[in-house]
Design brief:
Elements lengths: L1 H57 L3 H14 L4 H13 L3 H14 L4 H13 L3 H14 L4 H13 L3 H15 L3 H13 L3 H14 L4 H13 L3 H14 L4 H13 L3 H12 L6 H14 L5 H16 L4 H13 L3 H14 L4 H13 L3 H14 L4 H13 L3 H14 L3 H17 L3 H14 L4 H14 L3 H14 L4 H13 L3 H11 L3 H4 L2 H13 L3 H13 L7 H7 L9
Helix pairs in contact: 1-2, 2-3, 3-4, 3-5, 4-5, 5-6, 6-7, 7-8, 8-9, 9-10, 10-11, 11-12, 12-13, 13-14, 15-16, 15-17, 16-17, 17-18, 18-19, 19-20, 19-21, 20-21, 21-22, 21-23, 22-23, 23-24, 23-25, 25-26, 25-27, 26-27, 27-28, 28-30, 30-31, 31-32
Length: 584
């Protein structure tokens, strides 16, 4: 029995050995298959990323393409094309250092690929490494000596590297092959001007003129070259030549106008200018660029007003259907403090093109300045409908409703403006107006909070300080804070009789009657304050509390005669005593 057991055990061992050997072969085979499968999967993933990156690039989604190509490199670091593509993409997103790094890698991996080398040259140029770019182009030109574009790029790189004589040699060589062409002449002209070789520079332009004498653009380039070198008589002679061929040539007329102005010949200056601006072929954009500085000059030089308005009239007459012409004329009238004429032209501009929010904004601003609340409300409603994301439409709508004492509607529009968000200075304006609207509604906590926000954003806003401090004083609340705010407003604007009156009134509410009298008498030195019924009534209140009762009654009577209508004024006069509940 024992032998049998041993035999069975041995047989089992042999069987196990046989099975173990078989299992070992199977594992080896499976491992090789798995490795092959894994490589295929990785290759598929890499291909998927490559084509996805190509698609993203074609769609213009460069950042996604960069991410996808970068992920591809994790699977395959030996594909030079991917490094080239990354270099081009980083060039597109204006990242010079990364563009150069990937371009170097691609060019090093394949030194015979022309496009890889050109990408490297572009990256050098982007990094302002012009000598290196010139070296790459020189090598490419040796490989492709008949490629004119490569030769031109070599010349440009040398020029940017300030290797001017070498650049001129390259451009001369190229000119001998392609003839006189504008771009080459222009580049050579620029180099000669940098070398202060003005005659050589003008000779390059004269080559173009010799080929096409009727092309006035080349004559203008010649005149510009002389002007840049301050050779004014020669420039003027060229402009005279241009005007003989085209008496209405705008650039020549403007140049001649400037010459006449420098010589003090105002009539000829005006004549040339009017002639140029009357030409409908003179681009309106160039006209606008010429006139626009007048808008800034009007503040310091009123003599420019008449000329600016004249030029905008000529622009409108020569471009009667262009909304930009009317918008510019309106801007000129607005800056010249002629709001009615400005409004006419803004409205005409909008009739021709209602899509320009900037014109609507100017229209609303003018209506607000003129206290035309009905017009402001109408236009702001339209702006809100047409431009629902524009912050200022809601601000002006809130202002219009405030003017019309529709405080609920005003608060709604102003809070909508805050939800949209805008520039910090305009947001502060919204909070300031909210403070006024909440005050009018008797919502004092919200009003105070709004004013506090304004003063956090604009710590020197003396208007808000004055309003805030006065409203606190008439409520008899936080009088110490009111006094501080009012005093600060006077520090910022010490000559304001309105602020003096506010400060005096706060001192009065604090029981500092003598000091209040001193400040209100300072205010009354101003002629406007002498006609202000509120200031006069306040003076009477202060005088009464200083026991100058007869004089107090006189000022109450004077305040009434000037139009004061505060609650209790009639009682103060009739009873000849101060009524405590009176406010402004």
């Amino acid at each position: 029995m024992r032998i049998g057991v041993i035999a069975i055990t041995v047989a089992a061992g042999l069987l196990a050995a046989a099975c173990g050997s078989q299992k070992k072969v199977t594992i080896t085979v499976n491992s090789a298959v798995q490795q092959q499968l894994q490589q295929e999967v990785l290759a598929q993933r890499a291909d998927s990323l490559f084509f996805a990156a190509q698609r993203s690039k074609m769609l213009g989604d460069y950042k996604t393409a960069i991410t996808q190509y970068s992920d591809y490199i994790r699977y395959n670091r030996n594909n030079a094309t991917v490094y080239y593509e990354l270099s081009r993409l980083f060039t597109e997103v204006r990242n010079p250092s990364y563009a150069l790094g990937f371009a170097r890698r691609a060019a090093a991996m394949d030194t015979t690929n022309k496009w890889f080398q050109m990408s490297l040259a572009d990256a050098f140029t982007m990094n302002e490494m012009f000598d290196s770019a010139a070296y790459i182009y020189d090598r490419l030109v040796r490989q492709s000596p008949l490629d004119d574009d490569l030769l031109y790029n070599k010349g440009m790189s040398l020029s940017k590297a300030k290797r001017y004589s070498e650049a001129l040699q390259v451009f001369d060589s190229l000119e001998s092959r392609v003839g006189v062409v504008e771009e080459l002449a222009y580049q050579k002209q620029r180099i000669f001007l940098r070398l202060d070789m003005v005659d050589n520079a003008t000779n390059e332009i004269r080559k173009l003129i010799h080929q096409q004498p009727a092309e006035l653009r080349y004559w203008v380039m010649l005149a510009d070259t002389y002007e840049a070198s301050e050779r004014i008589p020669e420039a003027k002679a060229v402009y005279d030549t241009i005007l003989k061929q085209d008496p209405y040539h705008p650039r020549a007329l403007i140049a001649m106008a400037n010459y006449e102005k420098k010589n003090g010949n105002e009539p000829k200056y005006r004549a040339h200018l009017i002639k140029a601006f009357s030409n409908p072929d003179y681009s309106i954009d160039e006209k606008v660029s010429f006139v626009y500085p007048y808008l800034q000059m009007l503040e310091t030089d009123t003599t420019k007003r008449e000329e600016g308005i004249l030029l905008t009239r000529l622009i409108v007459e020569s471009h009667p259907n262009d909304p930009k012409a009317y918008a510019l004329r309106a801007d000129m009238f607005s800056q010249a403090d002629q709001p009615d004429s400005a409004l006419v032209n803004y409205n005409r501009s909008i009739q021709l093109d209602s899509t320009r929010f900037s014109v609507w904004y100017q229209l609303m601003w003018l209506y607000s300045r003129q206290d035309r609340s009905d017009s402001l409300l109408r236009v702001s409603r339209h702006v809100i409908e047409q431009f629902p994301k524009e912050f200022m439409g809601y601000y002006f709508n809130g202002l219009a409703n405030y003017f019309k004492q529709r405080y609920d509607a005003s608060i709604t529009s102003l809070n909508t403006a805050l939800t949209i968000g805008g520039e910090k200075r305009f947001v502060a304006d919204v909070y300031a107006l909210l403070g006024d609207a909440y005050h009018a509604m008797g919502l004092h906590t919200r009003s105070d909070s709004s004013y506090d926000v304004v003063l956090t954003m604009r710590p020197r806003d003396h208007i808000v300080m004055n309003n805030y401090s006065f409203y606190l004083s008439i409520r008899g609340e936080k009088l110490d804070k009111a006094e501080q705010l009012s005093r600060r407003s006077l520090e910022l604007k010490p000559d304001s009789p309105t602020y003096m009156d506010t400060y005096a009134w706060i001192l009065f509410r604090l029981g500092k009657y003598q000091l209040a009298k001193e400040w209100i008498e300072k205010a009354l030195q101003n002629p406007d304050a002498q006609q202000d019924p509120d200031v006069l009534e306040h003076y009477g209140d202060i005088l009464f509390n200083l026991n100058e009762k007869d004089k107090a009654v006189q000022y109450w009577q004077l305040a009434k005669a000037k139009g004061a209508n505060s609650i209790g004024l009639a009682r103060k006069i009739a009873e000849k005593r101060y009524i405590k509940s009176v406010d402004r």
